[in-house]
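# nightly structure sweep
# worker-07 picked up a monomer target from the shared queue
# config: single-sequence mode, recycle default, output format = structure tokens
# input follows
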Amino acid sequence: MTVLHTTALTATEAEEAPSPTDVCSAPPRRHPRPDGQDHYTISEVVAFTGLSAHTLRWYERIGLMSHIDRSHTGQRRYTNRDLDWLDLVGKLRLTGMPVADMVRYAELVREGETTYGARHELLEATRRDVLERIAELRDTLAVLDRKISFYSDAGRVYEAERAR
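# output follows
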């Protein structure tokens, strides 16, 4: 589990500030892909996805990425299809799907159309988990809102009494 430390920002600061990311999640593409290009080096993929080269190699090693083509010098050559896959993996990561389930999903995809049912079940289970987390977060937000309201009211009362 990755813990991100955040601080409160104004609306303007929040729009301008880069958001913190989990090293295993893919943020929205920072750079558009060049038109007509379908081969990218690992450093270009790092720039496009925000993932580290270490994470990309790890994804390949654990089977989350299918075999990545290599140039005649042995450099990895990623394709647009690989970048699309990384976008999906990033979304799955954001759902909280365990890496083992993501690897299982990747295996099912590689096995072909006969695995549609199993893929559907896996994604449905993930969807249910996400909906449960959303409900928990809504409950948590309601508690925070009540506490914020309480302290806001208590602060006004305190300041009014202090001003007397």
